[in-house]
Amino acid sequence: MLAMSAQxxxxxxxxxxxxxxxxxxxxxxxxxxxxxxxxxxxxVAQNSxxxxxxxxxxxxxxxxxxxxxxxxxxxxxxxxxxxxxxxxLGIVVAIPKVDLRRRxxxxxxxxxxxxxxxxxxxxxxxxxxxxxxxxxxxxxxxTGLILxxxxxxxxxxxxxxxxxxxxxxxxxxxxAYRLP
Length: 180
Description:
By secondary structure, the protein is mainly alpha-helical. It has one domain (6-178). It has six helices and three strands; from the N terminus they run H-H-E-E-E-H-H-H-H. It has a three-stranded antiparallel beta sheet with strand order 1-2-3, with helices on one face. A hairpin with a 2-residue loop joins strand 1 and strand 2 (67-70). The protein is elongated. The model has no long low-confidence stretch (mean pLDDT 90).
């Protein structure tokens, strides 16, 4: 078997990575922007309401004009955590040569974990506000950012556990450009 030149390896690995990123990005964008997430926003609001009631906070879920509210707060698409789930599904679908069972397991674990972390975040933000600990501007943005960082870290760990080929692909690009 003939050894490939470093340039040929880089070209092949880069092409594979670009194809992967194009497919993953397209899937994530379509899944995030095209569906109407009204039913899921209701589900997130109701789950958050239930958690709030468990911890002693009055919660009321209601709808008006196609919008979903939890108390006085509108539950928007970006409040559902669906962006992390859409990105991960794009990654899981795009990675080559992984059996369906591992793809489904990885996606299921991440989707359920992101959902529960997100309803916890919503309840925590409302509790911080109602308890007088933080104003909404501090309760909402920083906790969302912190959850986002932890969600991405969890996504990376889950990806590596269930589908190590994702990390293999990423490191193959790095390794290809280290070649002399």
